[in-house]
Amino acid sequence: MIDFARNVRVWFAPEEVRREGRTPDYRFSLANERTFLAWLRTSLALIGGGFAVDQFLPDLRWGWRVGLALALLAAGVLCSLRAVNHWVRCERAMRRGEDLPTSRFPTLLSLVVAVVAVAMVVVVFLGWEG
Questions:
Q1: CA distance 105 to 107
Q2: pTM score, two decimals?
Q3: In 16, 24, 36, 57, which residue has its Cα 20 to 30 A from 69's Cα atom?
Q4: Mean pLDDT across the stretch 101-116?
């Protein structure tokens, strides 16, 4: 938890990361940045999907619509926060010459998306009013 709090502080002061270790090969730092941007694109897609469910399925029962939309929106928010945290952790590890950090977040995100998709399949089969 303390490491997470330290990482949050670094989100707003990335120059602190440069003080650790040695500068890695720029290709690795740029690859880390591309991964960060991919996570942000995923986050934007999830947020867009949440708004789409809420706005474009007005005939869907209120509970289903709000539940699915909130699940997608929450996944998008978590994904965007995870993106910056993962970028900091990887950049630090590369500068220190350590192994890159592992994460269970991709599994969690996949499960959330799968649950929402299954719920949407149920809604389609049962009908919007169902």
A1: 5
A2: 0.83
A3: 36
A4: 92
CA distance 22 to 25: 9
Q: Residue 48 has which token pair?
A: 């867009």
- The Cα 85–Cα 33 span in angstroms is 12
Length of the chain measured in residues: 130
| Single-letter amino acid code for the residue at 44 | L
Contact by Cβ (8 Å): 17, 10: yes
Q: How far apart are CA 16 and CA 11, in angstroms?
A: 9
pLDDT, tens only, 47-85: 999 999 999 888 888 888 899 999 999 999 999 999 999
Quote the CA–CA distance of 31 and 51 in Å, as a whole number.
30
